[in-house]
From TrEMBL:
InterPro entries: FAD-bd_FR_type, Fe3_Rdtase_TM_dom, FNR_nucleotide-bd, MRET, Riboflavin_synthase-like_b-brl. It comes from the Bacteria. It comes from Nocardioides panaciterrulae. It is found in: Membrane. The lineage of its organism: Bacteria, Bacillati, Actinomycetota, Actinomycetes, Propionibacteriales. One of its GO terms (molecular function) is 2 iron, 2 sulfur cluster binding. Pfam families: Ferric_reduct. Residues 236-336 form the FAD-binding FR-type domain. This is Putative ferric reductase. The chain crosses the membrane at residues 30-49, 69-90, 102-127, 147-169, 181-199, 211-231. Keywords: 2Fe-2S, FAD, Flavoprotein, Iron, Iron-sulfur, Membrane, Metal-binding, Oxidoreductase, Transmembrane, Transmembrane helix.
Length: 468
């Protein structure tokens, strides 16, 4: 098995964290999941207590009852999916963006499907169970019921968001266009509120129910306003980021160095990413997510960009002094997710950027950190990684070449041995380590599969993928 190995024994050791933050994050994840299930059980109880499963005579009653429960559950999930993407710090820290996005996708599609079931069932039920009378009833409800016209407009917004979130559609859209369209979800949720509060029998029929729904809507709106609007605005006013320089790192790859005011007060850690808007260029209104490629030192930040889209390519033409707006930091690919003394950093291509920052910023003793770097043309940060190998005792394995097939995450040079056997050969104690993995989504999934097969628990595997 061919791999280029670099690493020496460093002269200094640093203390290693105990994993307290990882345990706190696990508690937050359990509490958040429990709170969602409790909310769903509560609205289901209200539906049952209101006669949802009793005394159903004919088809119309059954359809109307089904329409009410699907509407209630869809409403809870609708608020949950907004909260999942509201950048609430405690959720960001506990789940990480990749995991939140995956849950958001499941919750979002479930909520949308239930919303459609609600519309069909309630309209069909109000039509007396007569399918032929459904169109006329739908028109009557839309025109004459309070808030229904707004709800129809909100549904249209959500249909557009869901349609552009289907994988086939996403492949045909630029990230910038998809992101802009996705913001219409907020408009869709807002337009649905009047209908729910004005005509929802199970929502406003008692003080307890009114308190529950108003509190849920108020908390969700406050989360969006505070964490997606107010906090980013305050941080930009305080830190005033600007481009210091742009340095070419290789073909189609460049590092952007940023300076600002009081960066030692910006709560960002190695391994995290931020959303950046570089003013004065086309498309500046849309934030592009970039991981830090160097550990923050309180004076400057560095990101490394590959020209794979319009926004990334434009970064190469940035001029010193360009004002930068940012959101974040986000992600938990870092020290807070750590549960073990030893770590393995596994990256492909430009996915090495957050791992390069982690190799510098994590606390570890000589020999406790190993980095597996797969690349095709040029090894990014070669000199910097060699310096970390000499100074910190980082062990680096370079894996050059193209992948040997769609079902392997390793290059051709490793020979006929399986990916799992190669991983165990290079890192015999891999099951005793936390694994931090970053790269393309399909490649990352293959790595995750082998890490689980090697004996790591899911809590030891921390992923970040280049996908949207």
């Amino acid at each position: 098995m061919t791999a280029v190995v670099s690493g020496t024994t460093a002269s200094r050791a640093r203390p290693v964290p105990t994993g307290l933050r990882a345990r706190r994050d696990a508690t937050v994840r359990l509490a958040a999941g429990s709170l969602l299930w409790l909310a769903l059980l509560l609205v289901t109880y209200w539906w049952v207590a209101g006669g949802g499963v009793q005394g159903l005579g004919g088809r119309a009653d059954r359809l109307t009852s089904v329409g009410r429960i699907t509407g209630l559950v869809a409403s809870v999930l609708l608020l949950a999916q907004v909260l999942l993407m509201a950048r609430v710090p405690v959720l960001e820290s506990a789940f990480g963006q990749d995991r939140l996005a995956a849950i958001h996708r499941v919750v979002g599609f479930t909520s949308f499907n239930l919303m459609l079931a609600h519309l069909v069932a309630i309209t069909w039920g109000y039509a007396g169970g007569r399918l032929a009378g459904t169109p006329a009833t739908a028109w009557d409800l839309t025109i004459n019921y309070p808030g229904m016209l707004l709800a129809v407009a909100g549904t249209g917004c959500l249909v557009m968001v869901v349609a552009t979130s289907v994988r086939l559609a996403r492949r045909r859209l630029r990230y910038e266009s998809w992101h802009l369209l996705h913001l219409y979800a907020y408009l869709g949720v807002g337009l649905a509120l009047p209908h729910q509060l004005w005509t929802g029998k199970e929502l406003m029929s008692s003080p307890a129910r009114s308190l529950f729904w108003w509190s849920a809507w108020g908390a969700t709106a406050a989360a969006v306003l505070v964490w997606r609007v107010a906090l980013p605005g305050w941080r930009n006013l305080r830190h005033r980021l600007r481009v210091a320089s742009v340095v070419a790192e290789g073909p189609g790859v460049a590092s952007v160095y940023l300076t600002g005011h009081r960066l030692d007060r910006l709560p960002v850690e190695a391994g995290q990413f931020l959303g950046f808007r570089f003013l004065g260029r086309p498309g500046w209104t849309r934030a592009n997510p970039y991981s830090l490629s160097a550990a923050p030192d309180g004076r400057s930040l560095r990101i490394t960009v590959q020209a794979v889209g319009d926004g990334s390519a434009a970064s190469f033409r940035l001029r010193p002094g360009t004002r930068v707006l940012f959101e974040g930091p986000y992600g938990r690919l870092g020290a807070r997710a750590r549960t073990r003394h030893k770590v393995a950093l596994i990256g492909a291509g430009v996915g090495i950027t957050p791992l390069r920052a982690l190799a510098e910023g994590l606390a570890y003793r000589p020999g406790e950190a190993v980095l597996l770097k797969r690349y095709t043309t040029e090894a990014l940060f070669f000199d910097e990684l060699e310096h970390l190998a000499r100074e910190r005792g980082l062990r680096v394995l370079y894996l050059p070449g193209h992948r040997r097939g769609p079902h392997s995450w390793l290059p051709h040079g490793v020979g006929e041995v399986s990916d799992l056997d190669a991983l165990r050969y290079w890192v015999p104690d891999i099951h005793e380590r936390d694994a931090f993995v970053c790269g393309p989504a399909a490649w990352t999934e293959l790595v995750r599969r082998d890490l689980l097969a090697a004996g790591l628990s899911p809590d030891q595997i921390h992923l970040e993928t280049f996908a949207w």
